[in-house]
């Protein structure tokens, strides 16, 4: 399933070029880090008819899965985003803004003053976020994972499918190192062997961490702190993925990767002593967001292959 989103910022000053859209930037960053593709972004004034028109455009014409709005949720007479949202949705989803307000109130009692709304228009979920960068980030982080599950249910029902659409992604690169202590490098294709791992990789073996995977989205976060281009395999990952938020999948999840199948046995690991990436960037994403699998079914894997979460 492809997660497609639109981000709309409501700001009178911003639409006139008098204010930077820091909240919209933060929302885009969080969505992309969680596997969403931003299909559309705009900034408009706090005008009821313009807001309604943009929401209808995103749902009916662009057919994005999620519309995240920022701004216009307070007490000002110009704050009409919730009213515009409720005017165009078919069904209200009250739990999302309730959860966001609850999270905000852990930080400040002013969180109760948010009038944010959320609802469904056809196959699109619309949610309102606050207008400040900090508040928008906190609120979106609080609900981003349940939202992804919700839209999977929504699209499953819309397609007359009884089962929820399970997450899918792509193989971006495959990497090996023929000797231990040597940096991994890209190859055209690898073969995953049961109870072993990748043939020809020095770190394969009959143990639970047979093959390592890391998302390209996770690599991109570390890239921002570096002056040089990271290469696939720099984090000692065997398989680089796209479109899957790997570290959110629980241990025991089964994956089909190209011709092969595996089961997640571990999420993250302690960074090895003298990690070059940690020393250069001050951080290494592999210990938090990398995963390891044990091979259940043998097969070839190459860039461009599908990755599917199995029931």
Description of the molecule:
The protein has 311 residues and is an alpha+beta fold. It contains nine helices and 17 strands. It has a seven-stranded mixed β-barrel. It has a six-stranded mixed sheet with strand order 2-1-3-6-5-4, sandwiched between helices. The protein is elongated.
Quick summary:
This protein is an alpha+beta fold. It is 30% helix and 27% strand.
Report the sheet-strand fraction. Answer: 25-35%
Total strands: 17
Q: What is the oligomeric state here?
A: single chain
Instruction: Give the C-alpha Rg.
Output: 22 Å
What's the SSE pattern? Answer: EHHEHEHEHEEHEEEEEHEEEHHEEE
Instruction: List unreliable stretches of 5+ residues.
Output: 157-164
Q: What general outline do the C-alpha atoms trace?
A: elongated
Describe the secondary-structure layout.
Blueprint: E1 4-10, H1 12-15, H2 22-33, E2 37-44, H3 48-61, E3 66-70, H4 81-88, E4 91-92, H5 95-105, E5 118-121, E6 124-129, H6 133-158, E7 168-176, E8 185-187, E9 190-193, E10 197-198, E11 211-215, H7 216-223, E12 239-242, E13 254-257, E14 260-267, H8 276-281, H9 286-289, E15 291-297, E16 299-301, E17 306-309
Helix pairs in contact: 2-6, 3-4, 5-6
